[in-house]
Amino acid sequence: MELGSAQVIGAGLAAIGVGAASLGVGVVFGSFLQGALRNPAAADGQQGRLFIGFAAAELLGLMAFAVAMIILYAR
Amino acid sequence: MAAETKIDPMHQFFIDPIAGQLGPDNPFAFTNSSLWMLILLALITAFMLAGMRRQLVPDRWQVAAEGIVGFINSMVETSIGPQGRPYLPWVFTAFIFILFANLVGAMPFALVPGAHPFAVTSQFTVTGAMSLISFAIVLGVGFWKHGLHFFSLFVPKGTPFALKLLITPVEFISFAVKPFSLGLRPFIAMFAGHILLDVFGNFVVQGINSQSAMGYGVSILAFVFVVFVNALELLIGAIQAYVFALLTSLYISDSVHLH
Known about the structure:
Strand content of chain A: under 5%
Oligomer: heterodimer
Number of strands of chain B: 2
Number of strands of chain A: 0
Helix content of chain B: 55-70%
Largest sheet of chain A: none
Radius of gyration of chain B: 23 Å
Order of helices and strands of chain B: EEHHHHHH
CATH architecture of chain A: Up-down Bundle
Order of helices and strands of chain A: HHHH
Distance between the termini of chain A: 16 Å
Shape of chain B: globular
Largest interface: A-B, 13 and 17 residues
Strand order of the largest sheet of chain B: 1-2
CATH class of chain A: Mainly Alpha
């Protein structure tokens, strides 16, 4: 197999991780809404933690994207 | 067909020297990145000057500036506490710089022929340097306030000794990775978003150029997608600036209070 084709396949495989991270982001916001609707008074104080969880979940997906880009544009 | 006009989404991130030559003997040239940083500086200065007129009945600029400053101030106060006041300038600087860079980078300046927009935060050198400054503050404050006792940050309290042996290296590694991940986050968010915009913008043009019914259909779909991704890009830009400021103040809080 040529290097270029292998790179494209590898980048596509690495992009699966971005989809997995989207599940994580959905879980973060979904759980926050579940909790927030049960106790709306406490919800505003937890927004910082919401975004920390969002950032952590998102970062792992972005890592997959970075890996895909490194594979795709590696020489 | 796609081979004729190859999409090159990386081209938008190239750093071109505007004045002077970039070379091994002259690493400091005035590039498009420097130009856009100066534009950001001018914009932020204008925004803050317009907002700092201290009128009793504020106009809309003053409300905007006071809103942002108050927002960051309350964030620093809730995460660090009353001792957090000295760190407010850096947190606010980082926040407003990343916010303006992300928002200006998403603006469609390319509508003017020849104007070449450049998102400063899409270069890891910029965001990485900002996260290094954050960690210089974290380490400096930690060692200044606590001396060598700062290393107890890595040892969780109230755990059995056998578990401490296991957890301390893990905590150390997680601390060592933090500056990297802090700078990586805003960089990759901008990088990925701009690649996405570039690729789908090219789909619009290529669909029109193909002059077929399917091509026009693809163009319309891609155009609608680009509009929504642009809106998402504005949201992501604001969220990344907020997350950078929030994490910076949390890390500073860790080193001020040592858990």
